[in-house]
Design goal:
Blueprint: E1 6-10, H1 15-28, E2 31-38, H2 46-54, E3 62-66, H3 68-81, H4 98-112, E4 116-118, H5 127-138, E5 143-145, H6 147-150, H7 156-165, E6 181-184, E7 189-192, E8 222-229, E9 232-236, E10 239-240, H8 243-256, E11 261-267, E12 273-279, H9 281-297, H10 300-319, H11 325-337, E13 343-350, E14 353-360, H12 368-371, H13 384-405
Parallel strand pairs: 1-2, 1-4, 2-3, 4-5
Antiparallel strand pairs: 6-7, 7-12, 8-9, 8-13, 9-10, 11-12, 13-14
Helix pairs in contact: 3-8, 4-5, 8-9, 10-11
Length: 408
């Protein structure tokens, strides 16, 4: 690849991406544009600007943007309309943030006439795939630089040596070996590596940084009501909120009740198994509530088809195919199903659990007249079931008759 003249770097302001910034300048002699996204990770982003300037980035080439509303509205909510869960448990908090970051990298590259983008994902993980598939889907001509696959900095010690040699500020707590790696956004917190690498050992309590231990959660349950419109949560306890505000509120409710903790060994797209510890308090509540409102507003056939499509949809997001035609096709079908998914769900939060305690909707398909154990005033003729059962039993009876005459 020809040396780039200008590179847009996904920049957190942390040690690793600061080293990458300097490495790009020294290795390629190129101009660097930094993009720092506020995804609700809960960190002060102003230091990222100061650090980028210290490393020689011109002020007009420093992009720091609050994309929390865009993140929830355009990525998290569409995913939750599908009830997407990877390998039965993971709510895809890291995976769903990557296409947004990649999209902005490509857009900023176009705005600044940059000819390449760069990221800090390692060569062992999923994020390199997610960043790069998204970038190429949006601009097939873009160059992508992945320093962890190119440089000879192979250890934490060499990272620190490079930082010292290039006068990159090192926080005191970065000089020692970090006990685990953390990625956070408004949907979740992900922790992996170091003390978590042995899946036989329980995660230390200090790994969980955003949710109380379920055993220490309040002894009194809390009930909250979540209102949906076309499959998206729009209000909590009757108060209308923006997408990011809804998720922030659900996070607060869930965190104090210890909701959304997960210790998972997952199959990475690159082939290896990886152990991660996740905290997704708001997302866990949102999933339970969304399934609750769908249970009374979505037809059985549509609901079952959605459940069949969901694992494929979740895998596409996990593997980095957000901008693929197949994900967009599935999204169109999922979104079509949500037209009447309106109403309110009451959720009980208690000691780590989020359970549906009630649901109601003007668009409900639930008919008490049809299911009542009391007199139904002729709404449903139970005798009709006899012919229904006989027709559905016919093929089973034919198989049984054949097997009696011709045993194996």
């Amino acid at each position: 690849m020809a040396s780039p003249k200008k590179v847009v770097l996904a920049y957190s302001g942390g040690l690793d991406t600061s080293i990458i910034l300097k490495w790009l300048q020294t290795e390629y002699g190129c101009e660097v544009v930094t993009f720092t996204a506020d995804l609700g990770q809960g960190e002060e982003l102003a230091p990222a600007r100061k650090k980028a300037e210290l490393l020689g980035v011109r002020p007009e080439n420093i992009y720091i943007e609050d994309v929390r509303e865009e993140f929830v509205r355009d990525f998290v909510f569409p995913m939750f309309r599908a009830n997407a869960v990877y390998e039965g448990l993971y709510l895809l908090g890291t995976a769903i943030a990557r296409p947004l970051i990649s999209r902005r990298l490509v857009e900023i590259a176009a705005e600044t006439d940059a000819d390449a983008v760069a990221h800090g994902a390692t060569g062992k993980g999923n994020d390199q795939v997610r960043f790069e598939l998204a970038a190429y889907a949006l601009n097939p001509e873009i160059k992508v630089i992945a320093p962890w696959r190119e440089w000879n900095i192979s250890s934490r010690t060499k990272l620190l040596e490079f930082a010292e040699a290039n006068q990159i500020p090192i926080a005191r707590d970065k000089c020692g070996e970090a006990p685990f790696s953390v990625d956070a956004n408004l949907l979740h917190t992900s922790s992996e590596g170091k003390v978590l690498e042995d899946p036989a050992e329980p995660a230390p309590d200090y790994v969980y940084q955003h949710t109380v231990h379920p055993e220490d959660a309040p002894d009194t349950p809390e009930h909250i009501e979540i209102t949906f419109k076309k499959g998206d949560a729009v209000a909590i306890n009757g108060q209308t909120m923006s997408p990011a505000t809804v998720l922030t509120g659900l996070n607060e409710h869930g965190a104090r009740h210890g909701v959304g903790r997960l210790d998972l060994v997952e199959g990475r797209y690159v082939g290896m198994k990886s152990r991660g510890v996740y905290e997704t308090p708001g997302g866990t509540i949102l999933l339970a509530a969304h399934r609750g409102i769908e249970s009374i507003t979505l037809d059985r056939g549509a609901a079952h088809l959605k459940d069949e499509l969901m694992p494929r949809y979740a895998e596409l997001i996990y593997n980095g195919y957000w901008f693929s035609p197949e994900r967009e096709m599935l999204q169109a079908a999922i979104d079509h199903s949500q037209g009447r998914v309106n109403g309110t769900v009451r959720v009980k939060l208690y000691k780590g659990s989020a359970t549906v305690a009630g649901r109601w909707s003007d668009d409900t398909l639930y008919s008490k007249q049809h299911v009542t154990f009391e007199e139904d005033a002729g709404t449903y003729d139970q005798a009709d079931a006899a012919g229904f059962i006989k027709l559905n039993a016919l093929r089973l009876k034919l198989i049984a008759a054949r097997n009696r005459k011709l045993p194996e």
